[in-house]
């Protein structure tokens, strides 16, 4: 409780310290390209997909799909994206489900 209070105070101090340097023209991006807008919409769509499908499909499958799509969006080769997304999904699963004992949705893998 004390630690979260200290983090909140430090965050507020940093915000107020940098508030003076922020101008109204810096708050909005004026040079957003069509590709940048499409990337933003893809990320939002993937977050919505994850939120809606995680209970049905399970954490492992949903996280794999989301990470694979994000890596392909960054123009990574398919094989490299597939290998890294599988490894990252397994590492994230092991950290949260086994290490921190966070219950993750099992979905299709409930056997």
What is the compact description of this entry?
The chain is mainly α. It has helices spanning 2-19, 34-57, 59-73, 78-99. It is built from four helices and no strands.
Integer average pLDDT? 85
The separation of the N and C termini measures 39 Å
> With helices defined by DSSP (H or I, 4 residues minimum), what is the helix count?
4
SS-derived structural category: mainly alpha
What's the helical proportion of residues? over 70%
* Rounded Rg: 19 Å
SSE run: HHHH
What share of residues are in beta strands? under 5%
Q: Please describe the biggest sheet, giving its number of strands, its sense, and whether it closes into a barrel.
A: none
Low-confidence stretches: none
Identify the quaternary structure here: single chain
What's the total count of β strands?
A: 0
């Amino acid at each position: 409780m004390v630690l979260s209070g200290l983090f909140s105070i430090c965050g507020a101090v940093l915000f107020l310290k940098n508030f003076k340097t922020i101008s109204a023209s810096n708050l909005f991006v004026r040079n957003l390209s069509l590709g940048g807008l499409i990337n933003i919409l893809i990320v939002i769509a993937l977050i919505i997909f994850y939120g809606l499908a995680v209970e049905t499909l399970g954490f492992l499958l949903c996280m794999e799909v989301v990470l694979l799509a994000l890596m392909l969006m960054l123009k990574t080769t398919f094989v490299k994206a597939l290998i890294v997304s599988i490894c990252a999904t397994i590492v994230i699963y092991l950290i949260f489900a086994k290490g921190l004992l966070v219950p993750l949705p099992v979905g299709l893998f409930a056997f």
